Amino acid sequence: MMPDLGKYGDTVLSAYAVSIVLLVIMVALSIRASRKARAELQKIEGRRNG
Amino acid sequence: MTLTVKNLTISRGGIPVLEGLNFTLAPGKALILRGPNGVGKTTLLRTVAGLQPPVEGDVICGPETIAYAAHSDGLKGTLSVSENLHFWADIFGTKGIQNALDGFDLNSLVDRPAGALSAGQKRRLGLARLLVTGRPVWILDEPTVSLDVASVAMFADAVRAHLSEGGSALIATHIDLGLDAEVLDVGPFRAKPRSGTGGFDGLDESFL
Amino acid sequence: MTLTVKNLTISRGGIPVLEGLNFTLAPGKALILRGPNGVGKTTLLRTVAGLQPPVEGDVICGPETIAYAAHSDGLKGTLSVSENLHFWADIFGTKGIQNALDGFDLNSLVDRPAGALSAGQKRRLGLARLLVTGRPVWILDEPTVSLDVASVAMFADAVRAHLSEGGSALIATHIDLGLDAEVLDVGPFRAKPRSGTGGFDGLDESFL
Amino acid sequence: MGSIWEYANPVKFIRTSEIVLPWVSILATVTLIAGLVWGFFFTPDDYRQGSTVKIIYLHVPAALMAINVWFMMLVTSLVWLIRRHHVSALAAKAAAPVGIIMTLIALVTGAIWGQPMWGTWWAWDPRLTSFLILFLFYLGYIALWEAIDNPDTAADLTAVLCIVGSVFAVLSRYAVNFWNQGLHQGASLSLDKKENVADVFSTPLYVCIAGFVLLFIALVFLRTRTEIHKRRTKALLARERLG
Amino acid sequence: MIALLIRDMKLAMRAGGGFGLGLSFFLIVTVLVPFGVGPESTLLAKIAPGILWLGALLACLLSLDRIFALDWEDGSLDLLATSPLPMEGVVTVKATAHWLTTGLPLCLASPLFGLLLSLPAEGYQWLVASLVLGTPALSVIGTFGAALTVGLKRGGLLMSLLVLPLYVPTLIFGAEVARRGAEGLATTTPLLMLAGITAGTIALLPFASALVLRVNLR
Amino acid sequence: MIALLIRDMKLAMRAGGGFGLGLSFFLIVTVLVPFGVGPESTLLAKIAPGILWLGALLACLLSLDRIFALDWEDGSLDLLATSPLPMEGVVTVKATAHWLTTGLPLCLASPLFGLLLSLPAEGYQWLVASLVLGTPALSVIGTFGAALTVGLKRGGLLMSLLVLPLYVPTLIFGAEVARRGAEGLATTTPLLMLAGITAGTIALLPFASALVLRVNLR
Ligand code: HEM
Ligand SMILES: Nc1ncnc2c1ncn2[C@@H]1O[C@H](COP(=O)(O)OP(=O)(O)OP(=O)(O)O)[C@@H](O)[C@H]1O
Ligand SMILES: Nc1ncnc2c1ncn2[C@@H]1O[C@H](COP(=O)(O)OP(=O)(O)OP(=O)(O)O)[C@@H](O)[C@H]1O
Ligand SMILES: [Mg+2]
Ligand SMILES: [Mg+2]
Hints:
The complex is a heterohexamer, with 1 copy of chain A, 2 copies of chain B, 1 copy of chain D and 2 copies of chain E. By secondary structure, chain B is α/β, with parallel strands linked by helices. Chain B has 2 domains: 1-65 and 136-208, P-loop containing nucleotide triphosphate hydrolases (Rossmann fold, 3-Layer(aba) Sandwich); 69-133. Chain B is built from 5 helices and 8 strands; from the N terminus they run E-E-E-H-E-E-H-H-H-E-H-E-E. In chain B, strand 1 and strand 2 form a beta hairpin. Chain E is an all-alpha fold. Chains in contact: A-D, B-C, B-D, B-E, C-D, C-F, D-E, D-F, E-F. At the E-F interface, helix 2, helix 3, helix 4 and helix 8 of E face helix 2, helix 3, helix 4 and helix 8 of F. One magnesium ion is lined by residues 41-42, 141 of chain C. Chains B, C: Residues 3-205 form the ABC transporter domain.
């Protein structure tokens, strides 16, 4: 399955690892912030309407 | 020279604070603004002075007619009293500060650096600045803060003299100045929350 | 807890401004300082609070008994009202700010950053700080600046409550607080030029 | 009616994005994973660069996005200044962190790639240098947003910064080129190989680029929604306090 | 406008030194460099033009944050905004005052500091020329940064962050002129570029600064 | 005291970034150096330790002037002076907060910046060690300078002028450690000197700062 990366294995893998980690962190943070913002808004709107 | 405010809504920090304000200020008249702390007097004065745009409505008034005096006096502590006044006189293109010095009893302090004045003396200097602007419409935010009784009277005299020369004044204050002026309580103009409907339907450009 | 001032001479910028001051402030009492602008009230209060040394005479008072409130309030604009109060409570080692919030009607503003308060709201917060210090002797320099009538009454109530708990207060002010307190006019204590030779008789605020 | 500006209304935007967002997200995930898997597992090594050529599937899309995101911010900033549509200001705010992450990915993958290719992590090559400057612009832009309380003021100031910054970014690009002419032949050698990138490499590369673009779109939708929600929360809270 | 310029110069003088301070900072940076990198004069000569330009830039930067901050704090800025002066005028005057108190003294004193870093003899004229042409741009760009961050507490560091990337082109061309000059190479192209940048910023940036300042006063 | 520390850290954070800003300034100085002196990596490697130390020093310096200035302006300092905290405590806390928001992040990030300036591989550990040992001294000395100039408008530049000469010994030994480390030489002597300076300043300078501050409050 794993392709043979030759002597540059570390290089390629670390590049992928770093990038994917950065992407995942960014997506995760965005989703979390979105959830939080929405929940907070709902709480306040609930208070206002109810 | 008449200042007209029409159907004005003003906001602070993105939130409307006063709405539906209407008044006119004719030459020779003074208008005293009253209202509890935090109701929006300072915001109103800043809007009228053109420092912030109104949310709705208009402030109609000739160009270059307004002299504004805020909570802080805009004094430079390292410049002397006369240098401070001369500076503003130059900026507003008027001549002579003697009038201003006399009006607020600053003659004995002319050469003192403004930083070495007491709170009340600073305020008197700040008010003296109004006399060197040569502008007809005075917009004053709590002008008598820190002033003793004698100085308050001195200030009231200055306002009266200004009015008698055809000027006008819009003053926010919590104390009685002994001026013969109309009083506007801004309390009733407090902005009310928009439509009571919930959800996002009420969402407009101000996110309310 | 009694604060005693004995034969005090104080100076500002190297020039004596008041001299020969004597008074005592017993627990449960308030003393109002009056005097025209620039006579030296602020200087006197700073000296009593220990911020500057007296030229002559003594200020006698127990250690760590004084809470001082100056012209400016020492608020951090980026911290919320409750954070500001909690900070001072921690510094003075007292517990709980609820009392202070109630005393100055700040409950609706607790989470607001102090920078987004109006002038009067800021001042109320500054005064609320006194309640969290837990100190018996209050030294207040024009505490009611920018306050509306209702807030001034609120402040007077707070002082009365403090006095009834055995505290005391030394207050410089130009307006009538409606407190049942002794009044000391510092005008007569103006420092006189040392040598009585003529020419100096015209001494005024600027010491010329 | 039907004008594109309608979508700049917050309500309309929230409604539309509600529908669009899931689809874009799915599409983005699929494309990105497909492209990266293809690139990583199913492409041959380059005869000269060996397996390091696989880094291209991250490096180039990220680098392209880094520039394009800034460009998008420039456009939305102009829209805000001219037409004052709040969504467009908030979209710029939402995009900036994505842009800085893209810049970071381009820089980091480039640095990692540089180690075997040029024997150094970092060289003051014009292209690398101008990317570093772009990174700084992003940093300043985001810091300015964070530093200002009043949202409209922040929108105005950051918009002006973005426009002025764009001009200076372009200027810097020329300055940097002038400053370090032809010092790094090694860099231009490997960077200018675009023409002879064979199809085996370029097709998955295009898929990856598409994946990054879609990911960006999805993120901007999501984050702009977040910003709108936050704005409304703030406004409501403030209103409540006024009583 | 003249009144404002005079006042600002007066204030700069009164506040303990005025001219002197920017200069002393420049001096100290130049003096600290040998402590940092070691005293070999060949090495120093090589980095001298760059370091001198950097020092000038940092000296400018350090005095920037107070361009508007003081006027903001004491309320003068509000009052100026309601005065007959157009905001663009205010901004231009502020930039001019900043240059007169910082840039100009640096230009005049730079040969002296070149001496400290063993700058080669051919370099002096080009160093001065590049500074004279370049420092006005530094002041104008800096005024923009100061206008952006006025009213923010601890705005100083944020302002540096915003301003420094904007300084890059000026620095590159300026230092390039000085470096080429010191090495006896042709300096026309970078000199022209430098002049272009300065002219462009002076012509356009004040409008952006005025806009931004008005927004900040709201 | 803890309350004050926490408040100061909070303020630093809220004011748009806190930690980030000192760091970004450091980053920007390091980035600008190559623009000034040119991109050759051998030259850069040679001056890297010195420049990094200088950058750290300037980043510290730039954030100094606000240590007391803000508290002075809004009156908190008067109030703190009448609080149960001893002035020495206030000063120490302020220095600590400054170090935590400026020095510490610089230490942690310095290897990255070493990379940009092609610092040789052996240099990294010594660079970090010297910064960890030296930056506390920078903060403490800086606090003294800030205490001296509090209350002066435009005190920023004057303070730099006062503080920079005081920084010289720290800079010399710090940069020496980093340079010797990068060249693979023995570093014990300068390291010991650096540690001595730091220990000495931490032990003694707060008293001087407190004294000076009390005088300034009068
Ligand atoms: C930190 C360092 C680096 C940065 C910031 C950087 C930046 C960029 C940018 C902006 C692009 C896209 C520009 C365009 O398509 O016109 C690009 C493309 C590319 N880079 Fe890098 N790069 C870095 C290091 C490297 C290294 C070390 C290599 C390999 C030796 C490399 C190889 C490539 C290749 C092959 C392309 C695609 C070809 C092209 O579009 O011209 N890069 N890089
Ligand atoms: N930056 C800000 N962000 C949000 N709200 C603010 C901001 N500044 C002030 N406010 C709020 O706006 C309202 C109006 O403030 P304003 O200063 O105009 O009141 P004011 O009538 O002048 O009060 P005072 O008599 O106390 O001076 C207040 O409730 C205040 O809390
Ligand atoms: N730094 C200074 N140098 C010299 N004289 C000063 C300095 N600061 C204040 N003064 C002078 O000292 C005198 C006393 O000032 P002080 O501030 O104590 O007056 P005050 O009674 O509080 O007045 P106010 O009611 O106006 O606040 C004033 O005449 C003032 O001009
Ligand atoms: Mg007000
Ligand atoms: Mg006073």
